[in-house]
Specification:
Layout lengths: L1 H15 L8 E3 L17 E4 L3 E2 L7 E7 L2 E10 L3 H15 L5 E3 L9 E13 L6 E12 L4 E13 L5 H30 L1
Parallel strand pairs: 1-5, 2-6, 2-7, 3-7, 4-7
Antiparallel strand pairs: 4-5, 7-8, 8-9
Helix pairs in contact: 2-3
Length: 198
């Protein structure tokens, strides 16, 4: 009887331990869309700022939903960096690949660019309420003309991609498909808005 009580006490202490389970699988978002603008390159430059992220999406945790309104995180699976950090170079590369802009800038070049693209990651999660599970990626963007601080356009881009497997890795594959489609659509949209605004 004492042994049973001792084993239960050890299991209870282990369950309450502040030590987290180690992440054994880390994944990246690396796919971006390529859209080449067919006309001549403009003399316009654009500054792309670091995406902000809504609460809950600022860490490397991978989120999923199995119950309505309840967001959970995978224990042994994580992103190599926060989704906002990984999206940043994808947005820049997709805009660069259009060959429309004279320069696609980042960092402290605010006064040297014509336009600024701000973005906010609203959600990136795997939804198991549907079969097959789906990746939900939602980003809000705002394009501003820097000289007069005029908002040209604001829009939400929303991707919903079926996962090839109902697993964390299936979610990673679908998330990369989502970033590829979203960045391509976003680049087309930005080029159109800037060319109409000039």
């Amino acid at each position: 009887m004492k042994n049973i009580i001792l084993i239960c006490a050890i299991l209870l202490l282990a369950a309450c331990s502040p030590i987290k389970n180690e992440v054994s699988n880390q994944y990246s978002l690396s796919k971006y869309g390529s859209f080449k603008f067919v006309k001549n390159k403009s003399k316009t430059s654009i500054l792309v700022t670091q995406p902000e992220a809504m609460a809950g999406f600022t860490t490397e945790e991978m989120h999923y939903i199995e119950k309505p309104f309840e967001v959970s995180t995978f224990v042994h699976n994580a992103w190599v960096s926060s989704p906002g950090n990984m999206l940043y170079p994808l947005l820049m590369q997709s805009l660069q690949k259009t060959d429309y802009f004279f320069a696609v800038a980042s960092g402290p070049y605010l006064d040297k660019a014509d336009y600024r693209l701000d973005s906010q990651l609203i959600t990136l999660q795997q939804n198991f309420l549907k079969k097959p599970s789906r990746i939900e990626l939602k980003i809000k963007i705002m394009l501003t003309h820097i000289a007069d601080n005029r908002v040209v356009v604001s829009r939400i881009f929303n991707e919903n991609i079926a996962c090839p497997i109902d697993s964390p890795y299936g979610g990673v594959i679908a998330a990369n498909m989502a970033t590829e489609k979203l960045t391509k659509d976003l680049a087309k949209f930005i080029v159109k808005e800037v060319s109409n605004d000039i």
